Amino acid sequence: MKNKKASPWKSLRTGLVVLLALIVYAYGFEITNIDLEELRSEQRQQSLQRVMRALAQPDIFEFERDEQKVTAPVYVTCPADGSIPEIPVQDTSGPYVTVTPICAEPGETVT
Predict the structure, then answer these.
(1) Torsions phi, psi of 33, nearest 5?
(2) Which long-range contacts (CB under 8 A, 24 or more apart) does 77-83 make?
(3) CA gap 7, 15 in Å, rounded
């Protein structure tokens, strides 16, 4: 076996590369304004807890979703004469939407 001593230039070069890497890392840390105290805040702790739970219990099964867009007329400010246009009868054999009341004043709840 050869026990060759490391060249002083190689050691110096390695040391300078490590020092340069530490300086770049410290500069990046300073520029991005990392606040380690913020990690201890209650909000961050709750967020970290949710992330850790999600990582510990991944959704292995993906469920099918069917998204449908529907429109339904709602009249804001009911007609003064009470004449609301006739709404066609819906097909109730599949999914459907019913809006009540069909007209309302501004600020009223429509379900």
Answers:
(1) 55, 50
(2) 77/103, 77/105, 77/106, 78/103, 78/104, 78/105, 79/103
(3) 12
Q: Which two tokens stand for residue 30?
A: 């300073």
Exposure letters 65-80 (e unless 16+ CB within 10 A, then b)? eeeeeeeeeeeeeeee
For the chain, what are the domain ranges?
A: 8-56, 66-111
Euclidean distance between CA atoms 32 and 26, whole angstroms: 10
What is the tens place of the pLDDT at every residue in 48-84? Answer: 888 888 888 777 777 778 888 877 777 888 878 877 7
3-class SS of residue 66: coil
Torsion of CA 90, 94, 97, 102, to 10 degrees: 10
**Mean predicted confidence (pLDDT) in 11-30:** 94
